[in-house]
């Protein structure tokens, strides 16, 4: 008998036959999937709580005043982390295996601080009044908000 390869359509049907036979050997409970748990619909009391609290927000962090306070705390925290990292690098031996890790950590803190200032410069609190002043052709207001942007850019 001559040993020739099976035609492609015969090989694929043979493969399907083997897969079907294997499927019959595997017990059915092993193939069963766990049901997806369904969350019950929210009750009216849950809806009332959401309306009283202003929705499913992040609590205090959704208020503008608190965001400004958090921003100042973030800036202060980043600057303190940079100072701490500088002290660690001063005390660390430059040939130490951990020196590059500390240097990278300090670079990360500087990156985060620059990103923080960039977010301040491009924040809606500055962009929106600047855009509105430009639409009104109010040159004094445009200059004011441009100076504020520049001041924040210079902090970087």
Mean pLDDT equals 74
Percentage of residues in DSSP E strands: under 5%
- Secondary-structure element order, N to C: HHHHHHH
Q: What ranges have pLDDT less than 50 throughout 5 or more consecutive residues?
A: 55-66
Terminal CA distance: 82 Å
Q: Which structural class matches the secondary elements?
A: mainly alpha
Please count the helical segments: 7
Kindly provide the radius of gyration, computed on alpha-carbon positions and rounded to a whole number of angstroms.
Answer: 32 Å
The rough form would be described as flat
Number of DSSP strands?
0
| Helical amount | over 70%
Query: Mind describing the biggest β-sheet?
Result: none
Per-chain topology:
Elements lengths: L7 H18 L2 H4 L12 H10 L10 H28 L7 H23 L2 H13 L2 H17 L1
Write out key terms for the chains shown.
156 residues; mainly alpha
